[in-house]
Amino acid sequence: xxxxxxxxxxxxxxxxxxxxPQHVAVIMDGNGRWAKRQGLPRIMGHQRGVxxxxxxxxxxxxxxxxxxTVYAFSxxxxxxPQKEVDFVMSLIQGFLRQELREMLEKNVxxxxxxxxxxxxxxxxxxxxxxMAATKNNRSIKFTVATNYGGRQEILQACRVIAQKVQEGxxxxxxxxxxxxxxxLYTAGTADxxxxxxxxxxxxxxxxxxxxxxxxxxxxxxxxxxDFDRREFYRALCAYQQRERRFGKV
Length: 249
Ligand code: IPE
Ligand code: IPE
Ligand code: MG
What we know:
By secondary structure, this protein is of the alpha/beta class. The chain contains 8 helices and 6 strands; from the N terminus they run H-E-H-H-E-H-E-H-E-H-H-E-E-H. Its EC number is 2.5.1.-.
């Protein structure tokens, strides 16, 4: 653990516990740029990105945030060089192998969302194992979006619902927001209150399109491998200054 993370082991006293986001989502972007700046191959940025993620998960647990969802691999990321894709897949596998014990100890529930059937078999097995082992854990829900696309998620929900209508199990007028949400990958998890994107890009890149209808967005120029507790603290300070109006005056 770094000096900084020890320093910020507990929720900083100027943050109001009652105004913390219940659910934080993160687009972990900028690994490639981080590596380039250090004169290293892109994959080294992904490697360091995993360290940043491990500490963010511990931090959320330490500070009392109940759900963390991170974007690890998008449906569009298959278009990257094969070597980079393979490396990201092996990092996911390695992460699960190394962290499962601590997740069990700390009562973390891990779940994966996305089109998981298209992932390499070894990765799928590791995912199933860790999801099954932690399914009753309740201190924090940690969701990893892998081969995830917001549009694909909405389409697969539409297909399942259409099938139910065709079979006469459901009437079209019964399709409510609540019913629709129950068919998304994220069923059972409340929408994110705060979405953080690192590396300055101001777009959603197909992440949580439905769920982010009213979520607050925080963008920092910091590259993902450099995102630490102090950066997270800044994001939470900014969030606590926001006025969430949900369309009201
Ligand atoms: C995000 O970092 C990680 C993944 C998409 C897997 P990038 O790899 O997109 O980093 P940049 O945007 O090229 O710097
Ligand atoms: C979004 O980042 C996906 C992840 C962080 C996993 P990208 O780097 O793929 O997004 P774009 O290409 O800049 O929109
Ligand atoms: Mg990127």
